[in-house]
Amino acid sequence: MVTLLYFASLRERVDCAREEVALPPGTPTVATIVETLRARDGRWSEAFAPGLAWRVAVNQSMADLATPLKPGDEVAFFPPVTGG
Amino acid sequence: MAHVRVQEAPFDAGREIAALTEGRRDVGAVATFVGLVRDLNDGAAVSRMTLEHYPGMTERALEDICAQAAARWDLLDLRVVHRVGPLAPGDAIVLVAVSSAHRGEAFAACEFVMDYLKTRAPFWKKEVTPAGERWVEARSSDDEAAARWVEGGEGRA
User: Fold this and answer.
1) Domains delineated in chain B
2) For chain A, what is the mean pLDDT?
3) Mean pLDDT over all residues of chain B?
4) Are B145 and B118 in contact (CB under 8 A)?
5) pLDDT score recorded for residue B155
6) ipTM exceeding 0.90?
7) A61: closest chain B residue by CA
8) Is A57 on the interface with B (CB under 8 A)?
9) In a domain, A38, yes or no
10) Chain A residues within 8 A of B54 when measuring between CB atoms
11) B129, B65 in Cβ contact below 8 A?
């Protein structure tokens, strides 16, 4: 299992702040998870549409689609940051 | 060495500066930046705003930015305080304070920390305008400001 977190406008789009999902077998990466999210329904496929600006962090460090995942990882999806 | 805090409560910039100089005789310069909520953004009046963040990663990101600044310039200390939760126009959002022996290092490091914070620390602003609530969009000018520091020694392109 991995923990998925969603923040800000992305959280509102998918109407979910946190969930646990099973890790597919093989050598799963962030891209593997994103594919399963896109396959859920229109709301999810829109939120994760290719070309849309979103960022991902794995275990609280910035990551990308190729970042490998292992059981227990915390994967966070969010829009570009706007602090300061 | 850096001191990083994320909090809902207001901060006292004077106390943060004092904490950098207390009991020391080697500080020659303290550069500070305070960011405030404006009542106008992207052509719309802003009456309130809420700042969301990613607890845990936020502190790590800020500490990492401070460590990069400390590796790059000869600094004595750094403090970053960032507020989250509900804020109103005129409220201070963020404080960056940097101490060093000389002003050049303090000025440069203070600007670097702010430029990197704007593009790398996981905070998101949601504004209330007459047309309703809206998430603030990231600005390409912030990416450009952060990119200035990537090439060249002292960073100013």
Assistant:
1) 3-147 (3.90.1170.40)
2) 95
3) 95
4) yes
5) 46
6) yes
7) B57
8) yes
9) yes
10) 5, 7, 57, 60, 76, 78
11) no
Mean pLDDT of B40-67: 97
Beta bridge partners of B127: B49, B134
Give B64-104 pLDDT, tens digit per residue: 999 999 999 999 999 999 999 999 999 999 999 999 999 99
For the domain that residue A38 is a member of, what is the CATH number? 3.10.20.30
> Residues near B113 by Cβ (< 8 Å), separated by ≥ 6?
B65, B66, B69, B78, B80, B96, B98
Is A79 in contact with B135 (Cβ distance < 8 A)? yes
Give the distance from residue B109's alpha carbon to the nearest chain A alpha carbon, in angstroms: 16
Subunit contact B124:A5, Cβ cutoff 8 A: no
Name the strand (E) or helix (H) holding B106: helix B103-120
Q: Which two tokens stand for residue B100?
A: 């060093």
Q: What is the domain extent for residue A35? A: 2-78
Q: How many domains does chain A have?
A: 1
- Res. A15: pLDDT tops 80: yes
Predicted pLDDT at A52 = 73
The answer to whether the CB atoms of B117 and A84 lie below 8 A apart is: yes
C-alpha separations of A54 from A7, A31, A63, A65, B91 in Å = 10, 13, 11, 11, 29
The phi-psi region of residue A65 (left if phi > 0; otherwise alpha if psi is between -120 and 50; otherwise beta) is alpha
Q: How confident is the model at residue B152 (pLDDT cuts 50, 70, 90)?
A: low
Q: Which amino acid belongs to residue A40?
A: R
